[in-house]
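As practice, study what follows.
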Amino acid sequence: MRYRAIALFVAFALCGTGCHRHDRGHEHEEHELHEEHEIHDEHAHEHEHELEGVLHDGDFVHDDHENHEEGEIHFTHAQAEAAELKLETIRPGTFQAVIRTGGKIQPLQGNEQAVPAPSSGIMFLSRASLTEGANVAPGETLAHISSTRLQDGDPVLKAKIEFEAAEKDYSRARRLVEDKIISDKEFNEIQARYKLAETAYKGQAGNISNQGVAVKAPFSGYIKKWVVQNGQFVNVGEPVAVVAQNKRLQLQADVSESDFKYLRDIRSANFKPAYDEVVYRLSDLNGKLLSYGKSANEGSPYIPVTFEFDNVGDIIPGAFAEIYLLTNAKKTALTVPVSALVEEQGVYFVFVRLEEELFKKRQVWVGQNDGTRVEILKGLHIGDKVVTHGTYSVKLATAGAAIPGHTH
């Protein structure tokens, strides 16, 4: 019994010590789990604060790449102001069918005149700046013709001597015919010689100076061409220069035979001179259709269509032009200004504003072009806001400011 009691006491002591350690082990594990949970909650709380800052801080809203699709462009208000950005809201409207061709700007018939030499001699320009294209006023002296060094003598001086001699003969003949000393026939011959000499001399007398006989502009315009160059000899009556007025001009379009059936529908045109990027509208220049050919010119597969318009700008006669003939076949279409388009290897794009400071490059399929606006067949919708000015600046922004897409 004594040994059995000792064994039970030892067993109870060992059990108590183990059980106490086991309970403390459970308590330690629960304490560690509780601390991990608190640490996790603390990190989650800090992460929520960071997200809250991204959503509410204006500097972060536009940089939240995760909320935008690939190809979207961040373009700030400051950039837009610097680029003078302009937008246009897409709306359906009428658009005229276009025949695109080439042609030439020409002076109006009867709108230019050759200036003849009033005397024979050497021609000298009145001033060095009177080159071809220079503006001239009516009656302005263009050049002088001098005959002082000619072997035959000065024709103006000869005309003066002949006039004075004819005038004396005429005065004497008037007295003789009254006295019946000469016949009426002889008197008429003397009178005719006097009138011719008077016309020849007085026609030049008003233009004579120490420099010679003046060559004057017949009307206001510009010097289209010098036929005789400075210092060259010219005979009386020969053309010295051609002066043209540029108030009204003609536009002649060369239309292919394949478009002959559309000629009756042509009402107006837009054109772009080869030397300029400006597109002119005949409707803005008091333009009108003069005629169109009924057949092609000999040796040419083209049919001429001629317009007349006011030269209110710096439009140069004789220049070639790209011409957009407008027919009366109107239709409803979506269009954008030519300046809105960006071409890349034959593919066309526009930039559409999605929201403030956010744009997207979008491919479009184009139709006809009238020089100022382009028909959009596919790629845009009613209500889209398209960049029409500053397009190049937005394009540059795509290189460094394009927003990447989702990566997860």
